[in-house]
Write a structure and sequence with these properties.
This protein has about 300 residues and is an alpha/beta fold. It has one domain: Rossmann fold (3-Layer(aba) Sandwich), CATH 3.40.50. It is built from six helices and 16 strands. The chain has a six-stranded mixed β-sheet, sandwiched between helices. A three-stranded antiparallel β-sheet has the order 1-14-15. It has a three-stranded antiparallel β-sheet with strand order 6-7-8. α2 links the parallel β3 and β4. The two termini are about 35 Å apart. The N terminus is likely disordered.
Length: about 300
């Protein structure tokens, strides 16, 4: 549990003193509507038969791949959004963890919506043939289905679109991993009381290449800091609950566990370790659970290069 917090409200995240404060990555008004996206035919990719039917992604390309971190802390005054104190700690932790996993990390601060789109579009247009995978972390305010640039909202789907198998052929069949620290609504998770008792006594020939077709939507993992509809909590000194837990798990288990198992460990830490503690009773003793959406078709292991 965190130390006592200063009072605050969802509409006012300003920190009055230097004490750690629980905050939410929310904005004070509802999102607009995004235009529907058309669906294009699935893309074709070439793999060996053994690679195609393996239960583990091939992770022995020359490079691990590109990782992009977008850290939005301060927002334009006309947005009405408060500064996201503690997010620099999140960005620093993720930069360290992803670098340790051999990613080529690019860290960007305070990007406008169009700059976010252009940054990710440029990454998707790059040549990933020698890379294992792609990773991206976005730290910002948000609502379900939307993230904030420092100037306006942007649909999350618009950011994923360039990386789909029919758009980014050099990443087709490879993991595309997104970590999103942002609110997805305005509800609080009240939690539920649990009575917990201490347990006592209880062939050698490589097949030929074959042409296979895969879904363009496959091979994504999107790890959200919270389930749809809820606030996502962030400590103004230590960083967000989700990224703190993610950093801890990657540091301890990246060499031994697959990615989905690690994300389950992250869920457990956020659910059990953290609880808001503020002088405002309406915001105190709240809980949070991350949400992982996986379209992965194999297991992801980050073995050292």
């Amino acid at each position: 549990m965190e130390q006592p917090m200063s009072p605050e409200s969802p509409q006012n995240h300003d920190v009055a003193d230097a004490k750690p404060v629980s905050e939410t990555d929310a904005f004070p008004f509802g999102p607009g509507k995004s235009k529907p996206h058309s669906t294009k035919p699935v893309a074709s990719t070439i793999q060996t038969t053994s690679e195609f039917y393996s239960h583990v992604y091939k992770m022995n390309y020359p490079n691990r791949g590109k990782a992009i971190i977008i850290n939005n802390k301060t927002f334009n005054p006309n947005t009405g959004l408060n500064e996201r104190n503690g997010t620099d700690q999140d960005a620093s932790a993720l930069c360290c963890r992803l670098s340790e996993l051999d990613f080529d990390v690019d860290l960007h601060h305070n990007l406008k919506a169009e700059e976010i789109k252009n940054t990710l579009k440029k990454a998707a247009d790059s040549d990933h043939r020698d890379n294992d995978c792609f990773a991206c972390a976005i730290l910002s305010h948000g609502e379900d289905g939307f993230l904030w640039g420092i100037d306006r909202m942007i649909p999350i789907n618009d950011l994923m679109e360039p990386f789909k198998g029919n758009k980014c052929l050099s990443l087709a069949g490879k993991p595309k991993i997104f970590f999103i620290q942002a609110c997805r609504g305005t509800k609080f998770d009240e939690g539920v009381d649990m009575n917990v008792a201490d347990a006592k006594g209880f062939m050698d020939v490589e097949p030929q290449f074959s042409l296979q077709k895969i879904p363009s939507e496959s091979d994504f993992l999107i790890a959200y800091s919270v389930v749809p509809g809820y606030y996502s909590w962030r400590n103004s000194t230590n960083g967000s609950w989700f990224v703190q837990a993610l950093s801890e798990v990657l540091m301890k288990h990246a060499q031994t566990l697959d990615l989905l198992t690690m994300m389950t460990r992250v869920n457990q830490i956020v659910a059990n370790k953290f609880q808001s503690n503020t002088s405002n009773p309406d915001m105190s003793e709240k809980k949070q659970i991350p949400c992982v959406t996986s379209m992965l078709t194999k297991e992801v292991y980050f073995k050292s290069k």
